[in-house]
Amino acid sequence: MEALKRTDPELYEIIEREERYQRSSIRLIPSENYTSQAVLEASGSVLQNKYSEGYAGKRYYEGQRYIDRVERLAVTRAEELFGAEHANVQPYSGSPANFAVYCALLEPGDTILGMALAHGGHLTHGSDVSMTGRFWNPVRYGVRKETGRIDMDEVRQIARAHRPKMLVAGASAYPRELDFAAFGEIAHEVGAHFLADISHIAGLVVAGVHPSPLPHADVVMTTTHKTLRGPRGAMILCGADLAAAIDKAVFPGLQGGPHNHTTAAIAVALKEAASEEFREYGRQTVRNAQALAQHLLEHGYDLVSGGTDNHLLLIDLTNRGILGKKAAKALDRAGIICNANAVPFDPRPAFSPSGIRLGTPSVTSRGMKEAEMQQIAAWMNRVLQDVENEDLQKAISAEVREFCRAFPAPGLAE
Ligand SMILES: *Cc1c(COP(=O)(O)O)cnc(C)c1O
Questions:
Q1: Any domain includes 189
Q2: Is 27 inside any structural domain?
Q3: What is the DSSP string of 275-320?
């Protein structure tokens, strides 16, 4: 980054510090990851200089001979990796991609049945604070209090009562497997479209450690930057029957020119994700989450649903008498980064919830395995047992920094 250093030393220094921070801390935010150097290079390339409204072969501007090749590569790789008839790789991110799906298939005011935000769903599944909950009529399912799991009989009852036009399955804070076959059956019984939002778990689906929604869903949306380990972006997969409607909703319905440097980086990430190495990454991500869960249970922590099937876990800290925000801040000072999160039926307000959310995609990308999860759980427990002790947090952060040196992160200079 020599040119950046000369032109804007202030910004250069900030990025340098962020890079050091990413290198020397244990990052447990389940939506984050480390992309490869190859993905970073494609996403920082001259492709960002191009305008290319439209789709490959049908552009409004001339000069697309290379851009069309880039987009076709990304589309073909997406279709092959997920076994989809059609892929749109242009959405700027996951939230606008979900918006595009609703615009393609719904009328304003139609009913959307999605998972409640407070139970682990995403804002764009019809939350009151999202425009998706204003432009459409949201109805919600959640998890059972006793099990922390979605009860498909309850989902069916709600669907029969409200006859939604769209059923959304997908979550940002749900540690268990989603039963896409059952969601699909329910959607089709009540005449709803079925959208599977696999933003968090796309990499696990590719790796075969989470069932694929593809045979069951009408539309599949995923971000490209979470477990899939690509650049920040999203894609929409669907059958040939919905392709035209989806494409039109993305462009010209909601967006202008696609971000071609991102499209290129998505293509690279999809190539990487098609490797056996990536499948092993997905399997290890789940093994690590389960190991971390096991050790936290042994330390006496209360996990929502009692454990995990995927890459994330939710700790309910109520029995430890610590607020989520306080815990997350103390852990951050100790070099362990996670986020405060509501737990299902949380009596506390959303900005100061009872839990924290953890995930293993980033640490697994650095090559950490089960033994390291035991060490991380031990550090977390020491911090949380003595949460006011800033000297302890400082001492642990030095240990964490040293520990991280043995696990070089993809895309970061050593
Ligand atoms: C992250 C996420 C999104 C939105 O992605 P952004 O790129 O942050 O807009 C949508 N749905 C789910 C389930 C997510 O986890």
A1: yes
A2: no
A3: SHHHHHHHHHHHHHHHHHHHHHHHTT-EEGGGS-SSSEEEEE-GGG
Q: Are residues 110 and 166 in the same domain?
A: yes
Please tell me the predicted confidence (pLDDT) of residue 271: 98
Kindly give the distance from the C-alpha atom of residue 393 to the centroid of ligand 1, in angstroms, as a whole number. Answer: 31
User: Pairing mode, if any, of strands 234-238 and 137-141?
Assistant: unpaired
Are 231 and 118 found together in one domain? yes
Q: What is the tens place of the pLDDT at every residue in 60-96?
A: 999 999 999 999 999 999 999 999 999 999 999 999 9
Q: How far is the CA of 40 from the centre of ligand 1 (A)?
A: 20
- Ligand 1 pocket, residue 199 CB under 6 Å: yes
Domain range holding 110? Answer: 40-273
The total number of structural domains that make up the chain: 2
Q: Does ligand 1 lie within 6 Å of residue 31's CB atom?
A: yes
Omega before 252 cis (within 30°)?
A: yes
Q: How far apart are CA 170 and CA 174, in angstroms?
A: 8
Residues 326, 320: contact at Cβ < 8 Å? Answer: no
CATH of the domain at 241: 3.40.640.10
Helix (H, G, I), strand (E, B) or coil at 92: coil
Q: Is there a domain that residue 162 lies in?
A: yes
CATH of the domain at 297: 3.90.1150.10
pLDDT of 413: 79
Average pLDDT of the segment spanning 331-351: 96
How far does residue 95's CA lie from ligand 1's centre (Å)? Answer: 6
Over residues 254-270, the pLDDT tens digits come to 999 999 999 999 999 99
Same domain, 69 and 134: yes
Q: Confirm or reject: Cβ of 90 under 6 Å from ligand 1.
A: no
pLDDT digits (tens, 9 = 90+) for 385-413: 999 999 999 999 999 999 999 999 999 97
Closest by CA position to 184, among listed 207, 155, 162: 155
Query: What's at 262, amino acid-wise?
Result: T
Residue 170 predicted with pLDDT over 80: yes
* Residues marked as catalytic: 51, 53, 197, 223, 226, 232
| Claim to verify: residue 251 and residue 366 sit in the same structural domain | no
Domain boundary among 227, 247, 273: 273
- 101 and 235: one domain? yes
Going by pLDDT thresholds of 50, 70 and 90, the confidence category of residue 350 is confident
Is residue 175 situated within a structural domain? yes
Looking at the structure, do residues 52 and 150 belong to the same domain, yes or no?
yes
For 370-380, what is each residue's pLDDT tens digit? 999 999 999 99
Mean pLDDT of 352-359: 97
